[in-house]
Amino acid sequence: MTLAMFRVMWLELVRDRAALAMTFVLPSIVFLIFSAVFSGATGTDVRLKVSVADVAHTAGSARLTKALLADKALRAELATPQTQGAATAAVRSGADDAGLVITSDPAAPGTPILILSDPSRAVAAPLTEARTRDAMQHALPDELLARTLRDIGPAIGPLTPGQQLNVQLAEQTARTDPASTPAVPPLVLHQDVLLARKGGANIAYYAGAVMILFALFAAGHGALTLLDERRTGVADRILAGPAGMAPVVSGKFLFLLAQGVGQAAVIFATAQIVFAVPVIQHAGLWLATTVAASAAAGGLALGAISLCRTREQGQMLSTFMVLVLAALGGAMVPRFLMPPWLQSLSWWTPHAWVIEAYQGLLWRDESASALYNAWIVLACIGVAGLVVAQLAARRLRT
Amino acid sequence: MIAGDQGAILKVDRVSHAFGARQALRGVSLEVGGGEIYTLLGPNGAGKTTLVRTICGRLKPAGGTVRIAGRDPFADPRARAALGLTPQALALYPWLGVAENLQAFGRLAGLKGDTLRTAVTDAMAVTHLTDRARTPVRHLSGGYQRRANIAAAILARPRLLILDEPTVGVDLGAREAVGEVLKALRAEGVAILLVTHDLDQAVTLADRVGFLRDGEKVVEGAPATLIADAFGARMEVEVALRVGPDSAMALRLTGEGLTPGRESGAWTCLAADGYARAAELAARLGDLEVREIRVRRPSLEQLVARMAGERRAA
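Predict the joint structure of the above. Result:
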């Protein structure tokens, strides 16, 4: 009896070409879009658009301007005209992410650089400052040396004539051939914790995020058939028979689980083919995680929809559930960018568990012992939803 | 008295039920035998739906008993296995073909293998759907959809078939097709409980009719017997006006003992000598714009209208 309902759900999906495409094609497209958008936003491909205004008009400020315009990590352009007002207007209008005004020679006393930013793009200011420091270090080492000596002068006292001569020589060398300047050890070093692999962390993250997003979306759509069956009298017909609605609910759960696994297969195949995410290499753990995630999506959708009385209620609840859980669970914005209280709250969504499980197995090469917590939580969500749906179906009889 | 020849399949004995303070059923009793079509009539809110839900085992009656083939449908799944229900709405999966729908409902009714295949084939044969077996239900005409709706209810060869408004919203041809299916099922010995507002269908098909009002069964019997009991030898005289009467005309018509009929501008009365009364009315109402005056035997419609009138008077 359970398989009869599985077959009905399958045939209805296969015959409805639009629904079929939305279930299995759309997730891959959205995954590619999400990956492109968010891997850029949170990875190393951020290229801010910066409006540069040189109002100092010195040799040093001209060199810094030239260095910023040449920096491939920025999309710097000259403000027109070269005034603080023009740079401010560019940032205020949203045309540029940040503005950079060189108010005096970089080697001169005081603060020679002003960075303009809009609070809605607050992260642009520190990123622009970091790029400016990098440009100073590589393109204007002489100016940096002069500033440093001036800054430490009060602490070390006047230089001897010999030291002054050495400084002049060093500044001259740095000015004429910046590349030959002896490398100064940087204060901070960056090191990836997973040296063996480059790229793909965000892809693995968003493959999991899109998987659970669409599994829940499609499960909600499938679960709505429970309400259609009540409306059209199919439920009355079945309830008048000996079996009741229990096999109907079980059949739908089984189908939604299989549908989730199918969707995940398409999404992760795309991830493997396009982004070389190692899915096949973790096939066993991937399958266990996918089954648990699909069970959670199917159970949650069935449980929630079974509590609704009309299709309108069901559609509203389903949409609300998909959007809110995706936002809270990190399927839209990475969880590490959320405030701590939201990160804690996100563990109450299946999305956070699904995303962490997929990242764990695909990016951090975690074993089953590190993943079983997620599997248990997801399986419990699925079973709880199924129980709610079965109880609601039992109440339907009377 | 049961009209069928195979004993009572459905026995409803003094069933009562209330929803809060509202008494939906008040000691209703009825029996439907094998090979009998029993039509349940009554206005909206009379308790028909509650009675059907009780018979289907969806409600436990507060008082009285329901038995299908000797078993309680609320407590015993075997009783429900002997029951087929055709809901008012099209209770089918629209993207599936006719045969696929029947297979699904057959499996949900517990049929398997050859038994299922035979049941699907037989159900399509009885409802004349064999040549539409692969057509998706959403592509069928209204009449074929109604047949498929019945076919899904007879898969498990139910001894009792309940149909809730099986012809609502369909054309004459589809209604006749459904009627033919029901006659065929009756011939096979199925007990049929037909809930409908379609009085013509009730007269055409029903062996017996029961009229439910305010949760009580007020009359029951063969349509012809009920009409004869209610009206005796009296005839119905109908005066059809060209235009609807104003208040003064309506007062005159009422004074002549006429009451408004079903159609607009039609007024009726009963008379022992219908033709003499018709001639009398023609003479007395000659100054009104009378289109025609008809004399005919009272129908089930008059009986229903009379009972509705009694309710209003009460």
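Residues 20 and 268 of chain A are 18 Å apart (CA to CA).
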